[in-house]
Write a structure and sequence with these properties.
single chain, 207 residues, alpha+beta, 4-stranded antiparallel β-sheet, 3-stranded antiparallel β-sheet, globular
Length: 207
C-alpha cells in the first residue's frame, strides 16, 4: 500500500474517499460522477490506460507512471462540436483510453485480460497536448502522484462474456489498427462492454 494513499481525498465529484465502499459498489457509472474539469477551469481530467499487472506497481509505489493519456483537448472538443454534453466528451475520452489498454494487453501477454484506466486531475500546465499522435492524446512527463487519482475504471471480472471479448480484442488490436475489418469487429465488440467505476482506495480489492 502506498504511503500516500489518501483517506479523505474526493474519489469523484460529490463522493468522499471515506465513503463506505459497499455504497460505492451500488453505482459504477463510469463518467456521470465527474465534474467539469477542463482547460477553461485550469484543471484537466486525464484518462491513463493501464493493466491490472501494471497497477500492482502503482499500488506499491503510490504513483502512476509517466506516459501517454487522453483528455478532452481543444481538438477533440472541436471534432465533437455537435455535442453539447461534457459527459459525452468524457465518454469519448474514456473510450479512447480503453482502446489503448488493449494495446498494453497485447504487449503483455501474461497480464489479466481486463482493461484498466486511471483517472487523474492535473493542472493544465502539467499536460502536453499531442493531437499529432491521436485526437485527444496528451503526454504526462512525470509520475502522477496517487493523491491526484480520482477514480479507476476496469472491466467487470465477473462478466465472462466481457472478458472473452476483451481477450479477443487484445489479440487483434494491432491488426485492427492496420485496418483489418475482422479485427476491427472484434475490437468494437469489446468496446460494447462498459468499464466499471471504482474509487482509488478500492484498487487493492481489484489486484
Amino acid at each position: 500500500m502506498p504511503a500516500a494513499m489518501p483517506t479523505g481525498t474526493p474519489a469523484a465529484t460529490g463522493t468522499s474517499a471515506t465513503t463506505d465502499t459497499s455504497a460505492m459498489a451500488s453505482d459504477r457509472n463510469p463518467v456521470s460522477r465527474y465534474g467539469g474539469a477542463s482547460w477553461h477551469t485550469g484543471a484537466v481530467r486525464v484518462y491513463l490506460p493501464s493493466t491490472l499487472a501494471a497497477a500492482r506497481s502503482v499500488w506499491d509505489s503510490g504513483q502512476v507512471p509517466a506516459g501517454t493519456g487522453f483528455a478532452v483537448t481543444p481538438a477533440l472538443r472541436e471534432w465533437y462540436a455537435q455535442s453539447e454534453s461534457e459527459e459525452e466528451l468524457e465518454y469519448a475520452v474514456l473510450h479512447d483510453a480503453a482502446r489503448a489498454c488493449l494495446r498494453l494487453l497485447d504487449a503483455d501477454p501474461v497480464a489479466p485480460r481486463r482493461r484498466l484506466v486511471f483517472v487523474a486531475e492535473l493542472a493544465d500546465g502539467q499536460v502536453r497536448v499531442r493531437d499529432d499522435l491521436e485526437r485527444g492524446a496528451v503526454e504526462i512527463d512525470f509520475p502522477v502522484p496517487w493523491t491526484s487519482v480520482e477514480a479507476i475504471h476496469v472491466d467487470d471480472g465477473d462478466d465472462a462474456e466481457a472478458l472473452a471479448a476483451v481477450r479477443a480484442a487484445a489479440d487483434q488490436i494491432i491488426e485492427a489498427d492496420l485496418g483489418g475489418e475482422d479485427a476491427a469487429f472484434a475490437v468494437d465488440s469489446a468496446e460494447g462492454f462498459e468499464l466499471l467505476w471504482f474509487a482509488p482506495q478500492e484498487l487493492a480489492d481489484l489486484l
